[in-house]
Write a structure and sequence with these properties.
Aldehyde Dehydrogenase, Chain A, domain 1, 6-stranded mixed beta sheet, 15 helices, 25 strands, 40% helix, globular
């Protein structure tokens, strides 16, 4: 199944529009051009924001049951077109087929959760007479949509990370302007067609493509935009915060995720799970397993099994159904990760498997003899690269996982509840996964990071809270 080469338009104000410049989109494995997409000019971005701003009042007053039906239909349409959309993701993102299919399945759930949440947005009563000044008064608060939401999304999940911004925003009654990653815009354009077919009114959802330095800045700084939801790197997130002004923001900014393996761990379950967690989507997942802390008493056995399991992975063209690891998003990123590996080796690390690169493809790499100050340990690799580190005490392992500027998610394998709770208490992260790795996520749980890993939370109900304002009402009879 292939995607024919054609020019893909932008969705602005309910119309599919062209612009002056075209951006080629390539198959990340073959380098073949698969489509061109129009790049939004300043004028087009202005029209998109104006359309969202004009559409917001009507959409925000659309009854919840109608928003529910539209989002539910979008979920059904995604399911109906799962293989087609997975093929687009495979080719433009380089994601292996099974993970592309999994991403579409997750987006189906994310839109279903969003549909359900549209009917649950409510406030609470406030006991006014808890204060002497409130006697004889009635109080309650409502949740209302913020207005125009700007969604700026990354390449690594071109559908489901878009869904995590679009679904909750529409459920809450907001209008949107979406800027997908320039390397993977086709999935977002296809989603626009699906939302249009599902019944989203013109202007409520707009798609504009272009660089962060142009289109991203124009959206970020526009005063009509009330909320920015961004997933990307800390430097770009900080730049957006400086430019945005008084807007609500949600930022998911990455991690160098750690997982601890205790002696009582079930290695038969932990080893294959850790391999998947390190190398799925070529390690280009914000919660990919990057730092693996293994107790010294089991390090030899764990390492042997881990390397053997890694050898089983098939590296190749992601459209092949049995592919496990495809290319990285571009050759520059693959070269950067390769340089980090070489630097670590020069500083004493040992490559147990991998370390080889062919164009955009970096083979799954396992390092040992690493030190905490190496880039492969202290920065976000965002590559098929994991480092094994032997520890002596559980307290040491927890301290090392926590010793990071990031704080998105971490994992701990242990059957000792006291140790599990010790880690939960001392690891400052948005999530601590017990008897699983850092990569675990389901799409209705609160998801987001502490420290440099971000601001706010996603997960549909929690994203709705981030995309609404509280309006307090007091009635004095």
């Amino acid at each position: 199944m292939t995607v024919s080469v054609k020019n893909r338009r932008l969705l602005v104000g309910g119309a599919w529009v062209e612009d002056k410049e075209l951006l080629p989109v390539i198959d990340k494995y073959t380098g073949e051009g698969i489509a061109n997409v129009f790049v939004a000019s300043r004028e087009t971005v202005e029209k998109a924001i104006a359309a969202a701003h004009a559409a917001f009042p009507g959409w925000s007053r659309t009854p919840a049951h109608q928003r529910f039906r539209i989002l539910e239909k979008a979920s059904r349409l995604l399911a109906q077109h799962q293989e087609e959309i997975a093929t687009i993701i495979c080719r433009e993102a380089g994601k292996a087929w099974k993970y592309s299919m999994g991403e579409v399945a997750r987006a189906v759930e994310t839109f279903q959760f969003s549909a359900e949440e549209a009917k649950r947005i409510h406030g609470e009563t406030v006991p006014m007479d808890a204060s002497t000044a409130g006697e004889g008064r009635m109080g309650f608060y409502l949740r209302s949509a913020v207005g125009v939401v700007a969604a700026i999304t990354p390449f690594n999940f071109p559908l489901n990370l878009v869904a995590h911004k679009v679904g909750p925003a529409l459920a809450a009654g907001n209008a949107l302007v979406l800027k997908p990653a320039s390397t993977t815009p086709l999935t977002a354009v296809r989603l626009g067609e699906i939302l249009e077919e599902a019944g989203v009114p013109g202007g409520v959802f707009n798609v504009v493509v272009g660089s962060g330095g142009t289109v991203g800045d124009w959206i970020t700084t526009d005063p009509r935009v009330a909320k920015i939801s961004f997933t990307g790197s800390p430097p770009v997130g900080e730049a957006i915060l400086r430019k945005a002004g008084l807007k609500k923001v949600t930022m998911e900014l990455g991690n160098n995720s750690g997982t601890i393996i205790e002696p009582d761990a079930d290695l038969a379950a932990a080893v294959p799970r850790c391999v998947v967690s390190a190398f799925a989507n070529s390690g280009q997942v914000c919660i990919s397993l990057q730092r693996l802390y293994v107790h010294k008493s089991i390090a030899g056995e764990f390492t042997k099994r881990f390397v053997e399991e890694t050898k089983k992975l098939k590296v190749g063209n992601p459209v092949e159904k049995d592919c496990d690891v495809g290319p990285m998003i571009d050759e520059g990123e693959a070269r950067r990760a390769e340089a980090w590996i070489r630097e670590a080796v020069d500083e004493g690390a040992k490559v147990l498997i991998g370390g080889k690169r062919e164009g955009r493809v970096l083979y799954p790499t396992v390092l040992a003899n690493v030190r905490p100050e190496m880039k492969v340990m202290c920065q976000e690799a965002f590559a098929p690269l994991v480092s094994l580190y032997e520890y002596e005490t559980f307290e040491d392992a927890v301290r090392m996982v926590e010793d990071s500027p990031y704080g998105l998610q971490a994992g701990v394998y242990t059957n000792d509840i006291r140790k599990a709770l010790y880690a939960v208490d001392r690891i400052n992260a948005g999530g601590v996964m017990i008897n699983d790795t850092s990569i675990f996520r389901v799409d209705h749980m609160p998801y987001g990071g502490n420290k440099m890993s971000g601001l706010g939370r996603e997960g549909v109900r929690f994203a709705v809270e981030e995309m609404t304002n509280i309006k307090m009402v007091m009635i004095k009879p």
